[in-house]
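A.,

Following up on our hallway conversation. Structure tokens first:
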């Protein structure tokens, strides 16, 4: 069923759309304190959530029900087949669909059927010591190599998927229907099947990849800080294959070397963003992927205050756009945000220090919890002044005003965080669900995290 089809042809059409979009909210949405001056009931937030959610609803790969790696409105797919599904992006999509249910965009019973379809597919899809590959053929369930040696388990992508699965399970666990309990049971089995501890090779660190053909040849030890915190949390939380606290402290935190005393644009970095690089700050998706379910508000451990960490990263990117040291056209208080995305030449990890003049809307829009006023300025600017950069599933992946460049193309990993993080800003929905999971709380406690419930 198509839930949102509209062609944006002018600013006036946008205004009409905003005042006519579905304003009925599911009573299950809980309100959280709003300390900014941004109106959380702004209909433009409904609009972008509805569009981006639809990427994962109508735009899903039909056999699996999961998220396509990419959707190109020009129907040109030069790098991977259209039926390629993404493990991590599908995890984001699972959470996005929940937002659609709560906001009345998607019927609950239809979402439940979709979730069952997805977990049934995941049960039969290729797994490698419990971990799914980065890419899967949506028609067959077989691994699609992400690169030559990346044709086995991808523990980071698996963590993003499991984050979504556990959030869905919390949403339906108190349901009284057979279907709801079936879904919760199936998710529990999938969760318990991930062999997190096996991916340590017996060492005090987690490895990103393993291949039955190339074994550990990729040799990618995951040391922080980057987008992978959720992987260590889930690995510690596993009731069947947990890692020890030492794996977190020695592998992720590098015996304390993860802590940074530096700052940028007057904002403390809190943690060292690169284990093997001198770059001061990473692309903004690092403040999103692990925190779609893991609530950074009030979250602390011996190394960091995670709200300060994530909020400061967004502020740094915003202030960088104001500074605009490379003098790129368009940068400013209503046009900002650098992250990994499509670029003028292929794909690039945009960030301060690697700025190519390409803005990725997901960077600012997924930062609503951290920078609501600044993110709203970006959102309003896009929809009011740059409607050619917006299509069926929301803002296109990336653009450059400097080089007069954009493509009508989307990536799941960029569209997914937008509706989820906007909802976390508006109601805390996904944060509230994920942080109720008993295994997750046990894992956080095991690693020495504390949660200040006053935040």
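Then the amino acids I'd put at each of the 455 positions:
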């Amino acid at each position: 069923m198509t839930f949102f089809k509209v062609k944006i042809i002018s600013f006036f059409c946008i205004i009409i759309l905003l005042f006519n979009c579905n304003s009925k909210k599911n009573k299950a949405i809980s309100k959280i304190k709003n300390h900014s001056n941004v109106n959380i009931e702004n209909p433009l937030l409904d609009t972008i959530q509805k569009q981006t959610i639809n990427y994962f609803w109508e735009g899903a790969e039909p056999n699996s029900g999961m998220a396509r790696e990419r959707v190109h409105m020009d129907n040109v797919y030069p790098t991977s087949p259209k039926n390629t599904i993404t493990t991590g992006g599908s995890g984001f999509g699972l959470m996005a669909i929940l937002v659609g249910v709560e906001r009345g965009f998607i019927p609950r019973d239809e979402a439940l059927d979709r979730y069952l379809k997805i977990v049934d597919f995941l049960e039969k899809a290729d797994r490698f010591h419990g971990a799914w590959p980065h890419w899967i053929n949506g028609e067959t369930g077989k691994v699609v190599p992400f690169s030559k040696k990346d044709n086995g388990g991808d523990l980071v992508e698996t963590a993003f998927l499991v984050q979504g699965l556990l959030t869905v399970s919390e949403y339906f666990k108190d349901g009284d229907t057979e279907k709801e309990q079936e879904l919760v049971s199936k998710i529990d089995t999938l969760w318990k099947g991930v062999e997190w501890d096996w991916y340590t090779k017996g060492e005090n660190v987690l490895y990103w990849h393993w291949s039955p053909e190339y074994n550990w040849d990729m040799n990618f030890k995951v040391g922080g800080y980057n987008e992978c915190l959720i992987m260590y949390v889930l690995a510690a939380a596993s009731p069947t294959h947990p890692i020890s606290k030492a794996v977190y402290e020695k592998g992720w935190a590098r015996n304390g070397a993860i802590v940074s005393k530096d700052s940028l644009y007057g904002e403390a970095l809190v943690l060292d963003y690169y284990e093997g690089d001198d770059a001061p700050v990473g692309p903004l998706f690092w403040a999103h992927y692990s925190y779609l379910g893991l609530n950074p508000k009030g979250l602390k451990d011996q190394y960091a205050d995670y709200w300060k960490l994530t909020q400061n990263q967004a502020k740094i990117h915003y202030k960088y756009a104001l500074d605009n040291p490379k003098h790129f056209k368009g940068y400013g208080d209503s046009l900002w945000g650098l992250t990994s995305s499509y670029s003028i030449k292929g794909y690039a990890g945009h960030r301060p220090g690697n700025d190519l003049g390409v803005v990725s809307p997901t960077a600012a829009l997924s930062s609503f919890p951290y920078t609501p006023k600044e993110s709203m300025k970006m959102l309003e600017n896009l929809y009011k002044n740059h409607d050619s950069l917006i299509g069926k599933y929301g803002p296109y992946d990336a653009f450059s005003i400097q080089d007069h460049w954009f493509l009508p193309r989307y990536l799941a990993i960029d569209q997914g965080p937008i509706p989820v993080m906007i909802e976390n800003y508006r109601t805390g929905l996904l944060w509230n669900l994920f942080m109720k999971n008993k295994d997750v709380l046990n894992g956080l406690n095991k690693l020495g995290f504390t949660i200040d419930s006053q935040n």
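The radius of gyration is 20 Å. Curious whether your intuition agrees with the design.

B.
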